[in-house]
């Protein structure tokens, strides 16, 4: 028999009265149950800014009065725009920390989060599982059907009269949680929708990013099973399901911001879209002195203009796995490839010691290391280089550490080797290893990449032939323009679906990162003498030489 809500409230209130805490008990119970009856019946419009403005204003936040949600569109993601001009430096949004989903705050306010936090470090996803578990509960309707993970759990007593009453996150964030429930699952490769399963198993097969996404998916599954196994069902609720858990992981991954070294979800600011550095007009910053995330205009913004942030100089491989989308290749500001661990490298060359490193190694190379604003080989005007310091200016630390270990190993194994000869041996082993990884991933044999890879090879060969006559010419991006002459977004075949286009962009990002490093190692061995300045390969070779040999 299902007891009515009013009966349950009465029981809890009477229990609190017996403990002489009737005032706090009444406030506490109604705070826990207030969201239950109102949430399901209230109308909801995802393009109405009013409830979100109220969420901020009622909790000491701020939303500029001349900001609204963009109207519904079949071709554009929902975002924020202005209704009147904003001057540069104008504060647009302020969100206090009490509205952010953080591990420590949820562990204080939610019995479910507190239970998961006790084993957070043992979870494959780490402590962030605390946030994922609460979000899963909220997405599954727990906040509006029972509120059991809030402070109303039977495992906690009402706060004593001397304590400050805690507001249930279900109640405080009701508007935002309802909005998150209505969102589609972000199209990141590790989610469970059929389309993303196809993307992972078909389009990204043999891709290092696809392998990493598959590993992450297993980690998500293991974390879910551990939460369910270790947590009482009265805290989880009846609808704590794997599908919602995956959606929560994807939402957290794609809508989080860095605050004091922790990725946290922040309402309203997560509405901001990113269309590249060139279109950015707002910047978010966490003001630590007052625990507020503030968004300001970086330039004058016209009336009706969308407010756009910038997620950073990420590769398409990173964008797809973390945010669920990719950028047109001419706007991609870096390339990356997860090449694995030292144990995986040992599969491609016997000189690697499997015990050296277990941390995954990710190669990252700037697609635009210098100020290149001239048209490319296809007449496409390339974006200007980002401000200094926004792109990595050194190779990954794992590459440096492994190179030094390998250098020492070569000298120990062959006492007659000089330091310079040992370094050449290091470069040769890296070159052979990356060649093996490229062959294993079959980029150059992938039918989807055939035209793109041929374009890269053709233009590189053409630049080699013309280098002697042109002298030192800055052509670093021209050497790697792989997209079609008229179609600049990577859609070389007709009727390519979004999953196929995303996969193509990801694999070309990996291929170019591997190619850049492999050619840099060739340069360091003296194998390449192409007289063209500022190529990505030469730039990376300089960084490797500076970080290792000159140290």
Write the layout of secondary structure elements.
Elements: H1 5-18, H2 22-39, H3 50-57, E1 62-63, E2 67-69, E3 80-82, E4 91-96, H4 103-109, H5 111-117, H6 129-139, H7 142-145, H8 169-172, H9 174-182, H10 194-203, H11 208-230, H12 233-236, H13 242-254, E5 256-259, E6 262-265, E7 273-274, E8 282-287, E9 292-297, E10 306-309, H14 316-323, E11 334-340, H15 342-345, E12 361-366, H16 397-413, H17 419-441, H18 450-470, H19 498-524, H20 536-547
Parallel strand pairs: 7-10
Antiparallel strand pairs: 1-4, 2-3, 3-10, 4-9, 5-6, 8-9, 11-12
Helix pairs in contact: 1-2, 4-5, 5-6, 6-13, 10-19, 14-19, 16-17, 17-19, 19-20
Protein name: SET domain-containing protein
GO molecular function, one term: protein-lysine N-methyltransferase activity
Keywords: Signal
In words, what does this structure look like?
- There is one protein chain.
- By secondary structure, the chain is of the alpha+beta class.
- It has 2 domains: 5-185 and 213-309, Alpha-Beta Complex (set domain protein methyltransferase, domain 1), CATH 3.90.1410; 316-547, no CATH class.
- Helices cover 44% and strands 10% of the residues.
- The protein has helices at residues 5-18, 22-39, 50-57, 103-109, 111-117, 129-139, 142-145, 169-172, 174-182, 194-203, 208-230, 233-236, 242-254, 316-323, 342-345, 397-413, 419-441, 450-470, 498-524, 536-547, and strands at residues 62-63, 67-69, 80-82, 91-96, 256-259, 262-265, 273-274, 282-287, 292-297, 306-309, 334-340, 361-366.
- The strands form 4 sheets. Strands 1-4-9-8 form a 4-stranded antiparallel β-sheet. A 4-stranded mixed β-sheet has the order 2-3-10-7, with no helix packed on it. Strands 5-6 form a two-stranded antiparallel ribbon.
- The longest helix has 27 residues, at 498-524.
- The termini are far apart.
- Mean pLDDT is 80; it is low at 1-38, 145-165, 370-386 and 469-477.
- Residues 1-18 form the signal peptide.
- One of its GO terms (molecular function) is protein-lysine N-methyltransferase activity.
- Residues 65-312 form the SET domain.
- This is SET domain-containing protein.
């Amino acid at each position: 028999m299902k007891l009515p809500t009013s009966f349950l409230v009465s029981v809890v209130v009477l229990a609190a009265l017996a403990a002489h805490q009737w005032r706090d008990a009444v406030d506490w119970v109604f705070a826990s149950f207030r969201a239950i009856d109102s949430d399901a019946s209230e109308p909801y419009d995802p393009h109405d800014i009013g409830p979100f403005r109220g969420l901020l204003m009622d909790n000491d936040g701020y939303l500029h009065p001349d900001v609204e949600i963009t109207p519904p569109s079949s071709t554009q993601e929902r975002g924020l725009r202005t209704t009147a001009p904003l001057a540069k430096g104008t504060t647009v949004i302020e969100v206090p920390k009490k509205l952010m989903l953080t591990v420590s705050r949820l562990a204080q306010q939610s019995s479910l989060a507190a239970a998961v936090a006790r084993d957070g470090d043992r979870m494959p996803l780490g402590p962030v599982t605390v946030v994922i578990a609460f979000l899963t509960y909220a997405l599954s309707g727990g906040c509006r059907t029972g509120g059991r993970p809030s402070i109303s759990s039977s495992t906690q007593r009402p706060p004593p009269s001397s304590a400050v009453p805690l507001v249930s996150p279900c109640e405080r964030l009701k508007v935002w949680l309802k909005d998150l429930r209505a969102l589609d699952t972000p199209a990141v490769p590790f989610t469970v929708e059929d389309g993303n399963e196809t993307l992972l198993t078909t389009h990204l097969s043999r891709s290092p990013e696809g392998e990493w996404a598959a590993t992450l998916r297993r980690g998500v599954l293991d974390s879910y099973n551990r939460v369910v196994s270790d947590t009482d069902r009265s805290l989880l609720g009846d609808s704590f399901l794997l599908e919602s858990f995956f959606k929560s992981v994807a939402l957290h991954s794609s809508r989080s911001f860095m605050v004091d070294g922790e990725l946290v979800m922040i309402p309203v600011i997560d509405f901001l879209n990113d269309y590249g550095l060139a279109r950015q007009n707002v910047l978010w910053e966490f003001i630590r002195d007052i625990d507020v995330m503030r968004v300001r205009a970086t330039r004058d913004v016209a009336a009706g203009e969308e407010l756009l942030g910038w997620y950073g100089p990420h590769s398409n491989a990173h964008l797809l796995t973390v945010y669920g989308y990719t950028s047109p290749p001419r706007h991609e500001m870096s390339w990356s490839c997860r090449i694995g661990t030292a144990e995986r490298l040992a599969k491609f060359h016997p000189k690697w010691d499997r015990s050296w490193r277990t941390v995954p190694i990710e190669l990252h190379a700037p697609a635009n290391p210098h100020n290149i604003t001239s048209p490319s080989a296809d007449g496409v005007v390339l974006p200007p280089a980002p401000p200094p310091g926004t792109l990595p200016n050194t190779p990954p630390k794992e590459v440096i550490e492994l190179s030094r270990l390998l250098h020492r190993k070569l000298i120990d194994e062959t006492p007659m080797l000089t330091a310079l000869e040992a370094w050449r041996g290091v470069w040769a082993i890296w070159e052979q290893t990356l060649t093996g990884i490229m062959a294993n991933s079959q980029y150059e044999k992938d039918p989807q990449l055939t035209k793109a890879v041929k374009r890269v090879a053709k233009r590189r060969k053409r630049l080699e032939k013309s280098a002697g006559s042109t002298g030192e010419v800055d052509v670093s991006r021209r050497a790697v323009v792989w997209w079609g002459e008229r179609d600049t977004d990577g859609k070389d075949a007709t009727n390519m679906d979004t999953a196929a286009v995303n996969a193509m962009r990801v694999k070309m990002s990996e291929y170019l990162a591997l190619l850049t490093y492999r050619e840099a190692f060739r340069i360091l061995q003296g194998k390449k003498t192409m007289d063209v300045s500022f190529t990505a390969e030469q730039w990376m070779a300089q960084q490797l030489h500076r970080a290792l040999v000159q140290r």
